[in-house]
C-alpha cells in the first residue's frame, strides 16, 4: 500500500458567509490573531507526513500564493531594520513546503475542485483538507486518517456528531461500527433535512482517498446546488469498495462560520501567554456586566 504523501487543499470557494470582507480577501486568509486559517491547514498536512501539496484556487485568491511565496523586499526591510524575529517568521512561512496551485475556473462545487488535481495525484492515494477547517490535536487529524488507510487500504473520511439544527449543512453518514470510533460506510447523504437524515454524524473537512474517487467524480451528475458534490462521489465509491468513517480525536473549528471563527480566535488567543491574562480579564468584565 502506497504511503500518502500528497494532499489537496480546496480553497476556491467564494466565502459568501463572510461578505463583504471576502469580496477582497479569501476566507482562507482570514487571520486567527496573526496567522491566516490556511497556514494551520498546511501545517497539519506537513505534520501528517505530506510533502506535496496542491492548493485549488480561483479568482481573487492570489493572496494565498503571495502569502506562501518569498518576499524579498519585505525581508530586506526587516533585515535592515534589525527586526530579526519578524524576519525569521517571514522566512519560515515561505520555506514550509513547495506548493502547487491549480485554478478552478468555475465554482462548480467541492467535487469539481478535487477533480482538478487528478493529473498531479498520478494514481496515488491522497489526502483532502478543506481550507477553512482547523483541527487542534497533538496527533493531526489527517495523520489519524492516514494511519487507518494504511491498515485498511481503503478511503476514509473524518466525521463528528453535529447539532440537529446543523444536520442540513453536512454530508450525513449511516455506518456500521467495526472498531471503536470507526465504521464502514453504508450510506452518505448530502445536506439532508433533519427528519430524513440517517444519523447526526457529519463528514467534516478531512479525507484520505484512493485514486478511484476520481472515476466517481467523473461519473456523478450535478447534485445539490447544481454542483458536483464530493459526497455523491463518496456514495458511488462505497458501492465499489469499502469506505470508512472515523470519529477523529481533536477539536474542530469551522472558520467558515462566524461562531466557529470567533471560537478559534478566542481559544488560540488563550494559548498565547502574552494574551491569556488580559483576555481572561476582558471576558470577566464583559460577563460581569
Q: What is the residue-mean pLDDT, rounded to a whole number?
A: 89
CATH H-level superfamily of the largest domain: Spore Coat Polysaccharide Biosynthesis Protein SpsA, Chain A
Order of helix and strand elements from N to C terminus: EEEHEHHHEHHEEHEEEEHHEEHH
Q: How many H/I helical runs?
A: 11
| CATH top level assignment of the largest domain | Alpha Beta
| Biggest sheet descriptor | 5 strands, mixed, barrel
Q: Total number of β-strand segments?
A: 13
The percent range for helix content is 25-40%
**Number of separate domains:** 2
Question: What is the CATH topology of the largest domain?
Answer: Spore Coat Polysaccharide Biosynthesis Protein SpsA, Chain A
Please state roughly what percent of the residues sit in beta strands, choosing from under 5%, 5-15%, 15-25%, 25-35%, 35-45% or over 45%. 15-25%
Which CATH-level-2 architecture of the largest domain? Alpha-Beta Complex
Ranges with pLDDT <50 over ≥5 residues?
A: none
Entry keywords:
289 residues, 2 domains, 5-stranded mixed barrel, two-stranded antiparallel sheet, 13 strands, 25% strand
Amino acid at each position: 500500500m502506497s504511503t500518502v504523501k500528497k494532499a489537496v487543499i480546496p480553497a476556491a470557494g467564494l466565502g459568501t458567509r463572510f461578505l463583504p470582507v471576502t469580496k477582497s480577501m479569501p476566507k482562507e486568509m482570514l487571520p486567527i490573531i496573526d496567522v491566516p486559517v490556511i497556514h494551520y491547514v498546511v501545517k497539519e498536512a506537513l505534520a501528517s507526513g505530506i510533502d506535496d501539496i496542491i492548493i485549488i484556487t480561483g479568482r481573487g485568491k492570489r493572496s494565498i500564493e503571495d502569502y506562501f511565496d518569498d518576499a524579498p523586499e519585505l525581508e530586506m526591510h526587516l533585515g535592515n531594520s534589525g527586526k530579526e524575529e519578524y524576519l525569521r517568521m517571514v522566512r519560515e512561512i515561505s520555506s514550509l513546503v513547495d506548493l502547487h496551485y491549480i485554478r478552478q475556473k468555475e465554482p462548480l462545487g467541492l467535487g469539481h475542485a478535487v477533480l482538478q488535481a487528478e493529473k498531479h495525484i498520478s494514481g496515488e492515494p491522497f489526502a483532502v483538507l478543506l481550507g477553512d477547517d482547523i483541527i487542534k490535536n497533538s496527533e493531526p487529524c489527517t495523520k489519524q486518517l492516514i494511519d487507518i488507510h494504511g491498515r485498511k487500504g481503503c478511503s476514509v473520511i473524518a466525521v463528528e456528531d453535529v447539532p440537529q439544527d446543523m444536520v442540513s449543512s453536512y454530508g450525513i453518514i449511516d455506518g456500521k461500527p467495526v472498531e471503536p470510533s470507526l465504521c464502514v460506510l453504508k450510506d452518505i447523504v448530502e445536506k439532508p433535512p433533519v427528519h430524513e437524515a440517517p444519523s447526526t454524524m457529519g463528514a467534516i473537512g478531512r479525507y484520505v482517498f484512493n485514486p478511484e474517487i476520481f472515476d466517481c467524480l467523473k461519473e456523478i451528475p450535478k447534485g445539490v446546488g447544481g454542483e458536483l458534490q464530493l459526497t455523491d462521489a463518496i456514495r458511488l465509491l462505497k458501492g465499489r469498495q469499502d469506505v470508512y468513517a472515523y470519529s477523529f480525536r481533536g477539536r474542530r473549528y469551522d472558520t467558515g462560520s462566524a461562531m466557529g471563527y470567533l471560537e478559534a480566535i478566542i481559544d488560540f488567543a488563550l494559548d498565547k501567554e502574552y494574551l491569556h491574562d488580559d483576555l481572561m480579564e476582558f471576558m470577566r468584565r464583559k460577563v460581569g456586566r
